[in-house]
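Renewal narrative, Specific Aim 1. Our central claim is that a sequence can be written position by position from structural information alone. The example that follows is taken directly from our test logs and has not been curated for this report. It begins with the structure tokens describing the chain, in the order in which they were read.
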């Protein structure tokens, strides 16, 4: 699943092509994705100026005066700006036709993505209970420490809780825990304040670097300009179970934590 850096890469790639453009029409080639697409959405967007694209967690909001089209890439979705006469491919489910002669096209083979509507002045229910953004001033080690008290869940599951902090998915949680030297199996409530401060710093640094490098290349993810991301080659633990640790050389352990594959070094992470 595309994680926060991939979604932010998509946002930055789309922004200069859609901001300030007017929507000529919206073409829905199916009525639903993971959830039904609001039937009134094409009418609401038609003629609207797109003021910009913002991101909240892994959601993208295409903002206009009437409200925002709320997108989620799901497991395999991609948004690209293409010439209007670009031939359709399989799984091209939505076109937003722009006055530039281009279309914003959503392709999603597995249909786990979303296209919903957030009226102006409201917050969509999917966004109401989210924690702080990991690159914002509201997120730090003190925040993690405070919320973790009394929590017996593994610290990796705690870090991936979207009510604690948004957008830290499986890849970046694994990498941040390795960088901070914390075993993903440790109980969240037993991690010290100092170690949480190291973990928060690692989360911020790794996510910022991944965004700068264009996200992580996944099997189904391609950035809006058609180029893959470049962070995957730098992964220290994710997807490397059984391989030697790049620091100590010992064999990396692998297990399932919170129903997600987890890899760590039992020597470097305590």
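The sequence written for that structure reads:
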């Amino acid at each position: 699943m595309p994680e926060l850096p991939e979604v932010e890469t998509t946002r930055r790639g789309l922004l200069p092509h859609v901001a300030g453009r007017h929507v000529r029409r919206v073409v829905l080639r199916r009525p639903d994705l993971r959830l039904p697409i609001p039937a009134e959405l094409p009418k609401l967007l038609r003629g609207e100026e797109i003021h910009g694209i913002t991101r909240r967690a892994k959601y993208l909001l295409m903002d206009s005066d009437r409200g925002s089209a709320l997108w989620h890439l799901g497991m395999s979705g991609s948004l690209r700006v293409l010439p209007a006469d670009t031939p359709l491919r399989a799984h091209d489910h939505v076109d937003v036709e722009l006055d530039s002669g281009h279309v914003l096209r959503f392709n999603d083979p597995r249909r786990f993505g979303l296209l919903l509507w957030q009226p102006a002045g409201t917050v969509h229910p999917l966004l109401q209970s989210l924690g702080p953004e990991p690159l914002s001033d509201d997120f730090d080690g003190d925040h993690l420490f405070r919320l973790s008290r009394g929590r017996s869940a593994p610290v990796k599951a705690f870090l991936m809780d979207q009510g604690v902090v948004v957008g830290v998915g499986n890849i970046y949680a694994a990498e941040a825990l390795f960088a901070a030297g914390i075993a993903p199996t440790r109980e969240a409530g037993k991690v010290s304040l100092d170690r949480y401060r190291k973990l928060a710093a690692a989360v911020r640094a790794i996510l910022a670097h991944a965004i700068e490098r264009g996200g992580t290349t996944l099997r189904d993810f391609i950035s809006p300009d058609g180029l893959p991301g470049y962070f995957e080659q730098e992964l220290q633990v994710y997807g490397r179970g059984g391989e030697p640790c790049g620091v100590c050389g010992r064999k990396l352990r692998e297990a399932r934590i919170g129903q997600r594959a987890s890899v760590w070094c039992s020597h470097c992470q305590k």
